[in-house]
Amino acid sequence: MLKLLNGLQPPDTLPRLNGKTPRMNQFLTLYRLLNIILLSVSQPDQDDQTDYTTYHQTIAKAQQLIAHKHYQEALSLYNQVVDRYEFVFSRDYKVATQLALQVGQKQQAFTYLKKAIATGWTMSDIKKNALLTPLQGDPQWRVVEQQYDSLRARYQTGGNQAIRARVEKMFKKDQRKALLALFRMGATQEQYAEKRFAPHNEQQMGQLLPIIDQYGYPGERLIHNSYWAAVMLSHHNSISKAYTLKDTVYPHVRPKLMKALKSGQLSPYEFAMIDDWYMAVKTNGQQTHFGYLSSSLTAQAKANVDQRRAAIGLSSVETISLLTDLHQQTGFNCYLPSNLVKKIAPAE
To answer: So which domain of life are we looking at (predicted)?
Structure first.
């Protein structure tokens, strides 16, 4: 088991294992053969799709404006994104709803609220946001309540349901195996990880990678869930240093994830989590690409992190810190992943 290194904390139920097995070599051979078949049949055409790198970079600029309470200017950027892109991440509809209300555009707030519901925002979570309480006193709120079930149904029945069911089944298996590791300690835990979790993980990758090749990355856009595949890939990347150093799966799939970022199938938040687990385990916590797992960074490391974040459309360390303060002070919520919104302290 990896120990906590330089302030890095493992995700829940995250097993570690050691080394590379013959099964992985067999899997890679079979995977490459299957990959050739899938590419010849149904590889999605990305050439005509809008570049979502620009999407996320625009959102990052808007978040910087939000951090300094320039709500009207931020709303203008969110409006641009919504008008330009066919698919909009649910998180961004949630933020746009708050921005519209902040600048007195109540009708637009209701429009974005309905879009957020249709992409997964539940009524219980909406009511937890104190900034949105004024909407409940408006006559249009009753309309939202009346339309809620039909809006919610768009989220529940949309996307590729067959692939969603497959990925969800894989995720549940992943969680069961990971949970079993928690009840073991020391060498026993290590032995379990190597003997039981490694073969399971290789089987998971053997199913997940062909899905990525045939249908694209199974995230929010494809299956209306951004968590399942990202966690499984993060588990793969956090097996052990020895395993990671020999691993050929993630170096192979990483360019596919970058392509998924560009096409809007993967958000930079999930990519940063997946990629930073690889770097953290590979370097014993000494290096990071995006600071996703870091509790402290040197000035040079922070500059490098900010540069890499900007390239994929993630806000800087400073902006995230300001947004965290804004949330605590005003309740304005950008709905960022919990690992990302923690404070990153300066290191010597």
So the answer is: Bacteria
> What is d(CA 92, CA 81) in angstroms, rounded to the nearest whole number?
9
The reported pTM is 0.84
Tokens of residue 278, six digits = 């690889």
**pLDDT given at position 49:** 45
Residue of 22, 148, 99, 20 whose CA lies nearest to 333: 99
How many C-alpha atoms does 237 have within 13 Å on its Cβ side? 28
Task: State residue 105's pLDDT score.
Answer: 98
Contact criterion met (CB below 8 Å) for 126 and 174: no
Q: Three-state SS string across the chain, please?
A: CCCCCCCCCCCCCCCCCCCCCHHHHHHHHHHHHHHHHHHHHHCCCCCCCCCHHHHHHHHHHHHHHHHCCCHHHHHHHHHHHHHHCCCCCHHHHHHHHHHHHHCCCHHHHHHHHHHHHHCCCCHHHHHHCHHHHHHHHCCHHHHHHHHHHHHHHHHHHCCCHHHHHHHHHHHHHHHHHHHHHCCCCHHHHHHHHHHHHHHHHHHHHHHHHHHHHHHCCCCHHHHCCCCHHHHHHHHHHCCCHHHHHHCCHHHHHHHHHHHHHHHCCCCHHHHHHHHHHHHHHHCCCCCCCCCCCCCEECHHHHHHHHHHHHHHCCCCHHHHHHHHHHHHHHCCCCCCCHHHHCCCEECC
Confidence of residue 197 (pLDDT cuts 50, 70, 90): confident
The answer to whether 47 and 218 are in contact (CB under 8 A) is no
CB 307 within 8 A of CB 68: no
Confidence check: pLDDT of 249 > 60: yes
Given this model, what pLDDT does residue 178 score? 73
pLDDT of residue 25: 53
Q: pLDDT, tens digit, for every residue of 199-223?
A: 788 899 999 999 999 999 999 999 9
